[in-house]
Amino acid sequence: AMAAERALAMATCTAPVNIAVIKYWGKRDTDLILPINSSLSVTLHQDQLKTTTTAAASRDFTEDRLWLNGKEADVGHPRVQACLREVRRLARKRRGGSEDTAALSLSYKIHIASENNFPTAAGLASSAAGYACLVSALARLYGVEEELSEVARQGSGSACRSMFGGFVQWQRGERPDGTDSLALQVAPETHWPELRVLVLVVSGEKKPVGSTAGMQTSVETSPLLKHRAEVVVPERLAQMMRHIRERDFEGFGQLAMRDSNQFHATCLDTFPPIFYLTDLSRHIIALAHRYNAHHGHTKVAYTFDAGPNAVIFTLADTVAEFVEVVRRSFPPATNGDQFVRGLPVGSAALSQELVAAVVTEPVPGAVQYILHTKPGPGPQLVDDPSQHLLGADGLP
Ligand code: DP6
């Protein structure tokens, strides 16, 4: 047969959001995205939060193009280019220079379309899912099956953890070239079936300092961050792995809260200081502590990233009651029927004692809605061609 390079090839993948319980904050190498400390996260289920990305290559494409949520975006973005370059490098290495005519030409231009199944405006960490998905779709397109978290890391640090499901560690690594700075699965999503996640999407906050810029200022100015990376995190990482292995919610929840708090303390220790926690965040923190104190143990644990949304870890048997506590504390303004989204939540009647002890000064409308989800799997290949985000013409 004649050498027949495929004229158009397309691959679609989905990838999850992850939420760190031992936070990543600070790079030792800003080009390769190498962190100053290891981190650990829980991958969230894609039924509630996911990115879908289609990557296509064709000899008929005249330029590389990118669409994000239906709008054309800059394909020349250095982090997008880094992912593209690294996946192509792996593809080339894999082919070992041999002229595999069945393989897709690496010289074809590519089109990429990506979208989220959640509103970008909600400020839910979308860059991790976005880059994990980009790298997964490109790898599939070029037939690359190597370790890919190292590539996703170069899109966004936290993206490397979205390359696996369940409980995931990003080990900082030691090498200057970053080849040992990768993600490893600590336990699969099936490991802790009772674990649940409530994302409290808060209303109308302006965009704060981005993590990339914020963490660099912290590295340059915060002595607390240096201490955290050198002393605190190594101990906490080992403890957190144990709590997860033993499904010890008391230990897991307490440490997640402490680590979130210390991350925000390093932000305050940054000069000039960075504030991600708001009055509402502090209100939610106090609510969680009152709720746990009322029950005499850790039933819910909060964590906050570089934005105003709160993420609550809890166990299935606590969801209905705590959701009711949140509803009473932040009575929905308008969308009362859509206040709880995602996995079903049962109804719960709160005792007088609980309300009196926990629900103080309600703040109407402060929480827009609650998304109920749980740990989930890593990136998935989408087999059904009707699910591609690009048509046969290579356009969205
Ligand atoms: C607070 O991964 O968004 O969410 O590597 O510069 O892209 P870049 O930063 P990014 O930082 C995430 C910071 C965090 C904590 C975490 O997810 O571990």
From TrEMBL:
It holds the Pfam family MDD_C. InterPro entries: GHMP_kinase_C_sf, Mev_decarb, Mev_diP_decarb, MVD-like_N, Mvd1_C, Ribosomal_Su5_D2-typ_SF, Ribsml_uS5_D2-typ_fold_subgr. One of its GO terms (cellular component) is cytosol. Residues 15-183 form the Diphosphomevalonate decarboxylase-like N-terminal domain. Keywords: ATP-binding, Cholesterol biosynthesis, Cholesterol metabolism, Lipid biosynthesis, Lipid metabolism, Lyase, Nucleotide-binding, Steroid biosynthesis, Steroid metabolism, Sterol biosynthesis, Sterol metabolism. Signal peptide: none annotated. The keyword Lipid metabolism applies. Its EC number is 4.1.1.33. Residues 197-381 form the Mvd1 C-terminal domain. One of its GO terms (biological process) is isopentenyl diphosphate biosynthetic process, mevalonate pathway. GO terms for molecular function: ATP binding; diphosphomevalonate decarboxylase activity. Pathway: Steroid biosynthesis; cholesterol biosynthesis. It catalyses: (R)-5-diphosphomevalonate + ATP = isopentenyl diphosphate + ADP + phosphate + CO2. Catalyzes the ATP dependent decarboxylation of (R)-5-diphosphomevalonate to form isopentenyl diphosphate (IPP). Functions in the mevalonate (MVA) pathway leading to isopentenyl diphosphate (IPP), a key precursor for the biosynthesis of isoprenoids and sterol synthesis. Belongs to the diphosphomevalonate decarboxylase family. This is Diphosphomevalonate decarboxylase.
